[in-house]
């Protein structure tokens, strides 16, 4: 990780991915400051050594305060649920796009060189891509306000690099899973819900025939991608390299069907819970798998965690197991 020193600002650091990142950074001896409004995140999850500022990422005053004395930024704060963004269109736009711009504007104000920003984009920018695997050159066609705002952030990110010299890397996460994902929110992802129900011996219902595929990437691999991308930008800044915008898929490149996912979880939990099939969800994308080659070329990384190992870690981290 680092001979880089200094302080890293992590927005959304109290969330699922942010909490893992903060622990990894602190364990590596890095000073960490978190800006989070605690709307879905938990203050108790971050390491004691991390400083927490409770505030809104779209509020320039809070962001200015959080930015003081910082050497690099990882921007994760967002309303991360597609469904919640559909329900709360304008408010989610404020967080998901204005928030990203507010961070970039504050990064721009750093003298003499703007601060580098690594930030969370999403595979949602691709929409229902027809050709698989989905590479970064696939034309974006988001199908949701959430995806549209992430794409908007990328367009601003590219302009910000060219015009204002803000080096920034958008990491397009595919479906991230791992310990610490809340299974109880109505907006939770499929893995945390299935793992929770099966661990309690309850049945699960798959929407559709279970043949739909996703690219599930373990949170530990996502943290390594964030950390490596930031390290790269901070080095380039020290060397006074020209600022650039990059967009990089963070994925495994391996498609997994929902049926296989459900069976694997049932086997790992030892559950007798049933697996039922229902009507397909309207608008559900049939297949999604990313091309991981750019992540390897640019960051020298592969998402190596095998699905079974990642799922086992998630199940073992659950507070109570009543099979
Ligand atoms: N989890 C995934 O599968 C996935 C996939 C693609 C992209 N992403 C992106 O990765 C990032 C992190 O996602 P996550 O899964 O950890 O989500 P999360 O909801 O667990 O974390 C988001 C954090 O941002 C905070 N936050 C929300 N609005 C805020 C605001 N206005 N000001 C300050 N803080 C605010 C929340 O309190 C929370 O701590 C998000 O940008 C998300 O869009 C996640």
Task: Give the SSE map.
Blueprint: E1 7-11, H1 16-27, E2 31-36, E3 51-54, H2 60-67, E4 72-75, H3 82-87, H4 89-108, E5 117-122, H5 145-164, E6 168-173, E7 175-177, H6 190-199, E8 204-207, E9 213-214, E10 216-218, H7 219-238, E11 245-250, E12 256-257, H8 258-269, E13 275-278, H9 293-299, H10 307-316
Parallel strand pairs: 1-2, 1-4, 2-3, 4-5, 5-6, 6-11, 7-10, 8-13
Antiparallel strand pairs: 9-12
Give a brief description:
The chain has 323 residues and is an alpha/beta fold. Helices cover 39% and strands 17% of the residues. The mean pLDDT is 94.
Can you put this structure into words, describing what you see?
This protein is α/β, with parallel strands linked by helices and 323 residues long. The chain folds into two domains: 203 residues, Rossmann fold; 86 residues, UDP-galactose 4-epimerase, domain 1. The chain has ten helices and 13 strands. The chain has a seven-stranded parallel beta sheet, sandwiched between helices. A two-stranded parallel sheet has the order 7-10. Helix 1 crosses helix 7, helix 2 crosses helix 4 and helix 6 runs parallel beside helix 8. The protein is globular, with a radius of gyration of 19 Å. The model has no long low-confidence stretch (mean pLDDT 94). The site of nicotinamide-adenine-dinucleotide (NAD) has 29 residues, from helix 1, strand 2, helix 4, strand 5 and strand 7.
